[in-house]
UniProtKB/TrEMBL annotation:
This is CoA transferase. Keywords: Transferase. Pfam families: CoA_transf_3 (PF02515). The keyword RNA-binding does not apply. InterPro entries: CoA-transferase_III, CoA-Trfase_fam_III, CoA-Trfase_III_dom3_sf, CoA-Trfase_III_dom_1_sf. GO terms for molecular function: transferase activity.
Length: 371
């Protein structure tokens, strides 16, 4: 894809948030180079996740604690457009590679830091993972059963942090075309979840703290019959998303239960609907409501997703090549073929040669632990 063709991105990140951010940039056409510590492999490399979100990138090893390694890195910065890092706040500065230092080598560099709590505030130095950021944001306080909060099966903070990092970088690249200046971007994954979770804060802001925090008024906790999950006869599930009156009416008529139309938000109806849904299989219910416009959908297992005709048609997944495509389509722009995820340091020699190092110099760098 030509949208970011020619833009060079240095990726100092591991695991999911940062690599997902740079994967987005890569799929838009940017040239992404993973900078990896020669003695510290990416934890995710042994998983299929690594292959999906690092496809098409290059990798070189570089010891940023080594003087020669830092010198090479600064040379790369002078030739690059974007840098993404996900160390704890302050690490890059302690390495002598903070934003102000990098600006001296490239005033147009766009420097993006992705961290759990952001670069300032009382929690900035506290380590964490997705579950911690979702906890602080209040998301887990609402996403719960009667007994306890439930951990989502999607890493919302990690993926959201990567997405907002990429979005901010794209905006900064556009702005740089106008003013010629670089930018420093501070992405807090907790802030991102707070932003994504904003609909649940409306009640708190309006003064109804107890109602929201106890899940008494949110559609997303299975409180109402019109927006819920129901088990079918074959031990599978369907979802019902009939928030609007017209869809709920269509649903009730599909059941031949017009008497329920006025009970869209009557919680006592849930028990009755559970019994009704238990009388037929999932596919039988989908067939019954196929033309009803009632917002009934099968709940798939991960294995079933790949066989759905809509999913196949949109080509988000390329199972044969184990490729994850961008979940958007462009009419005037063609998606490029993407290569495999890189082995650790596989492009080190190539990159050093591009920087002007000869064989003897490269071997010397290896002996001194710089790469």
């Amino acid at each position: 894809m030509e949208m970011l063709k020619g833009e060079r991105v240095l990726d100092l990140t591991r695991l999911l948030p940062g690599p997902y951010c740079t994967w987005i940039l890569s799929r838009f056409g940017a040239d992404v180079l993973k900078i990896e510590d020669p003695g510290y492999d990416d934890y995710s490399r042994s998983t299929s996740l690594y292959d999906l979100i690092n496809a098409g990138k290059k990798s070189m090893t570089l010891n940023l604690k080594n003087g020669s390694g830092r010198e090479i890195f600064l040379d790369l910065v002078s030739r690059s457009d974007v840098l993404v890092e996900s160390f704890r706040p302050g690490v890059m500065k302690r390495l002598g590679l903070g934003y102000e230092t990098l600006k001296e080598h490239n005033e147009k560099i766009i420097f993006c830091s992705i961290s759990g709590y952001g670069q300032n505030g009382p929690y900035r130095d506290i380590p964490g993972h997705d579950i911690n950021y979702m906890s602080i944001s209040g998301l887990l306080g609402v996403n719960r059963t009667k007994e306890s909060p439930v951990i989502p099966t999607m890493q919302i903070a990690d993926i959201g942090g990567g997405m907002f990092g990429a979005l901010s970088i794209l905006a900064s690249l556009y702005r740089r075309e106008i003013n010629g200046r670089g930018e420093y971007i501070d992405v807090s994954m907790t802030d991102v979840v707070n932003s994504l979770f904003n609909i649940e804060y409306f009640g708190v802001i309006g003064g109804d703290e107890e109602g929201v925090l106890e899940g008494k008024k949110t559609f997303l906790t299975g409180l109402f019959p019109c927006y819920n999950i129901y088990k079918t006869k074959d031990d599978k599930f369907v979802s019902l998303g009939a928030l609007e009156t017209k869809f709920w009416s269509n649903f009730c008529m599909g059941l031949s239960r017009e008497d329920l139309i006025q009970k869209q938000y009557d919680t006592s109806v849930i028990k009755e609907l559970k019994k009704i849904f238990s009388e037929k299989t999932r596919e039988e219910w989908i067939e019954i409501f196929k033309e009803a416009d009632a917002l009934i959908t099968p709940i798939y297992s991960p294995e079933e997703v790949f066989n759905d005709p809509q999913v196949i048609n949109r080509e988000v997944f390329d199972r044969e090549r184990k490729i994850l495509n961008l979940p958007v389509k462009f009419l005037e722009t063609t998606m490029d073929e993407v290569g495999k995820a890189p082995e650790m340091g596989e492009s080190t020699h190539e990159i050093l040669a591009e920087l002007g190092y000869e064989e003897k110099g490269i071997e010397d760098l290896r002996k001194r632990g710089a790469v």
